[in-house]
Amino acid sequence: MDVVALSELDPARREAVTTLLRRADDGGTRHEGRLVLAEHASSDKALAGFALLTHARDGSTAIHVVIDPALRMRNAGGEEGGASRLASELTSAAVTVADEDGTGRPLHLWAMQAGPADDQRAEDNGFVPERDVIQMRVPLPLAEDVLRATRPLATRPFVPGKDDEAWLRVNNRAFAEHPEQGSWTLEQLHERLAADWVDLDGFLVADDPDDPEGKSLIGFCWTKIHRNRDPVLGEIYVIGVDPAHHGGGLGRALTVAGLNSMADRGVHVGMLYTDDSNEAAVALYGRLGFTVDHVDRSYRRISTGTGTGPPAS
Ligand SMILES: CC(C)(COP(=O)(O)OP(=O)(O)OC[C@H]1O[C@@H](n2cnc3c(N)ncnc32)[C@H](O)[C@@H]1OP(=O)(O)O)[C@@H](O)C(=O)NCCC(=O)NCCS
Known about the structure:
The C terminus is likely disordered. 31% of the residues lie in helices and 30% in strands. It has a 12-stranded mixed sheet, with helices on both faces. Strand 3 and strand 4 form a beta hairpin. It is elongated and about 65 Å long. It is an alpha+beta fold and 313 residues long. Helix 3 runs parallel beside helix 4. The longest helix has 19 residues. The protein has 9 helices and 12 strands. Coenzyme A (COA) binds next to strand 10, helix 8 and helix 9.
């Protein structure tokens, strides 16, 4: 196996990465960033796996490792430890690349559908567990008794150019404590709104009914349909309620409105990601019938500039 670090991909490698992501059913990982590729030593240099390093605005680097599912299957069959060995090798190569970028910056290693082998690989590379993000799912349409127990709420689609500032204010207030979602800028919102999956009929907002003009936005539910997944998944992409209105049934009504809008468009499975430490969100989703599908885990260490330094405490 050859392990190579690249900042840019030639078209053939880009195609190989995209194909592997599709085969690994990893819709969440994008491939912009620096890559460490593991290619079979055979003449076709087939891609066995890669580690992707993505730099965030706050100076941290996220590392995602993706392994060819065929290799993982062989591994599960007990034939060889190839997949976990390769994951470890890619992780350690990615850490070396990240360390070359300088010292003292946080590195976040992500393991999708994390298991004991991922915990071990993280520990071996000097990482400590940091955050568990759970993926929850619910069958759609929602149960009748859930719908009956939800307060009625008028929602409308987000209007670009008109709702931007108000949405940003509510989002940043609702997510004030959140590492990624709480400090969005207008530029980020516009970038995201330009994504090809955005459908404004699935980006619902609620105005304050007590505002005489009914024009102040107090909550939202932004959905995203993953049509390339089997089954098709209807994601609650971001949901937030202005803290001044928490506890009044608005979060529940907005979540239900978002799920109903996707059920109306033929989606049979609702899905979302949440930090398992977000008690309000986990309670809300549990009451609607969501159950945990799997856990994605992040681990943390501080870059050392040498590639061999101690883990962050
Ligand atoms: C999660 C959030 C949308 C809930 O909105 P809300 O309007 O306060 O929630 P609701 O009043 O509709 O409550 C919904 C249910 O969750 C429960 N709940 C709400 N807040 C809770 C809390 N802090 N602890 C435990 N349970 C809580 C309620 O008991 C309620 O259950 P019920 O329907 O059986 O009465 C809101 O807290 C929020 O915007 N949080 C910040 C953004 C965020 O974390 N979004 C989710 C990311 S995945």
